[in-house]
TrEMBL record:
Belongs to the class-I pyridine nucleotide-disulfide oxidoreductase family. One of its GO terms (biological process) is 2-oxoglutarate metabolic process. This is Pyridine nucleotide-disulphide oxidoreductase dimerisation domain-containing protein. Its main location: cytoplasm. The keyword Cytoplasm applies. Gene3D superfamilies: 3.30.390.30. Residues 16-87 form the Pyridine nucleotide-disulphide oxidoreductase dimerisation domain. InterPro entries: Class-I_Pyr_Nuc-Dis_Oxidored, FAD/NAD-linked_Rdtase_dimer_sf, Pyr_nucl-diS_OxRdtase_dimer. It is found in: Cytoplasm. Keywords: Cytoplasm, NAD.
Amino acid sequence: MYRRHPRRTTRLARCLHRALGHGDAQGFVKVVADAQSDLVLGVHIVSSLASEMIGEAAMALEFSAPSEDIARICHAHPTLYEATREAELAVDKRALNL
């Protein structure tokens, strides 16, 4: 089913205003998506605030969502969910923040 190498991207928490406000800008969100179909194959969240971000990743995996669809969902600012959006955008090299 997956013939090409998956695309991977990592977004650091230090780029998120909400994480900076919590005083916890350590950690990252990594998204792995199929290079051909863009389906999200896996999401790694390493952060003390991961429990607040895991819902969107679980939804993407449960419904076999392409990374572009997740990136297009409205993400309020400043929130921790922005890390997921940034990682999904970065899969296609379209991230807004570094």
